[in-house]
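Run log, item B.
One chain of 497 residues. Sequence copied directly from the ordering sheet:
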Amino acid sequence: MKNALLLFLSASRLHAQVMEGGHIVAQHEFADTAEGPGDFASFVKNVRHPAFLLVDLIEEDFRQESIPHLIGGSRNALLQRKFEQFYHGTPFRQASLLQRQKGGRRDDDMLFSALTNPALIIPWLNILLAHQIPLAGIYSVPQISAPLIKDHPSDYLLLISWEKSAGLRQTYFSNHRLQISRLTPINAEQTFQDAVTRELPRTYQYLKSLSLLPAGQTLDVRLLGYSKDLLDLQSTLPTNADMHYDFVDLENLAEKLGIAHRFTDSDASQIFLHNLPIEPPPTHYANADHIHYCTLWRLRRALNWISGGLLVGGLAWGAADIWQSGWNANETLSMNTEAQRIQNEVKQITDAFPNTLAPASDMKSSVSIMRNLELQARPPLETMQPISKVLDRYPRIELDELGWKTDAAASAADNMPSPIPAQAVTVKGRLLGFESDYRAALGYLDRFQFDLEKQGYRVVAQSKPLDVSPGGSLSDRIESQQEALAFTLELSRRPPE
């Protein structure tokens, strides 16, 4: 984060600096006096960048505790009980997981810490809240020191830094996890080199007494300082097997971290301040009320990003739609031109057709003729099928000949004139099994004729087995019995119009 309000609080003063684009554009020191808070309020009244409050106080306590491995509400309730037990009088407290044990119940090793003198922080914090400054969190120098030792291979490392408004800070890491930290104030007459030479042996013995440094283990010490001061320390610090020194020049460290700041002494405050917005730890001492305005700021920022994304997407969609509309318009124009060309060609072709207009009477006659032709084209099956069904019911009739034709002059069953030609069928056959019983044969044949008439045929007998009409003569039919039972029928039927 290149734009931020960075605050460094010690026991006696508050340092504030406004960062824009990664560079300091304004800074001021505010003493812990009656005028200090008022001056600080005037300084931040027009600042709307997110604030990061870094504290370096003696009143910071650390406790290691193993707790059961819980999750959710049960874990939160247990942590709150521990806070009330260890740090009842301060709201600035936190718990960090060091590791989970590998044996037994696999409990969690936790580091509980707190700023035990809230009176040093609350006046400055209230000013930030009153001006609705988005506070990202409250951090301590030991808490944000881990990134400065992550490249060191040692499992037992002491980090030493000096902040001129606070004092000499010594932070101990085991397996790259914060264990304990001590701040030693330095008076104006004491130099950084003198403080390191005096306090380092004491810290070594303190770690040994707490069993934080295993017996026989060499303590690695990383010292952050100005190049000239580090040269003096190299000649001053005792050389022994108990401690191994790693001297880190602040200028080289700032260049490595991308911090544009020129150092004139061993004050490492700017290293911590510049690096804090870049790599803030996941936990800090502020609670939800303290970071309320920062939560709103982040929400507004997220909404702005989303709105911007939607706007860009809408513009892109609109541009694509405009382009598509233009393309469609060109295509429509091309299609209309092509359609007009085709219509012109069709008109030219139709104009070249001969005049075929006919009177309505001729058109009616043509339709009537076509309909008559269609009716005359009836297939024989429609005429023969009813005859076949009737013959099936008369097994004593043997069919000798069956003729079919279309006859416009033939009479239909209703004897009514019609423009539709009739279907004429000639049926020739013999009656079997009647011998000389002509009466029975004639009755059988009459029933056959009657059934045909029910099917819509007009039946005319051309010849019968015995001519019983008044003009008939029995002497004319001296034939064999088989020939005497022969008959010929003329059937006709006209399709419906």
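Observations after the first pass:
- Residues 292-352 form the longest helix (61 residues).
- DSSP finds twelve helices and 17 strands in the chain.
Flagged for discussion on Thursday.
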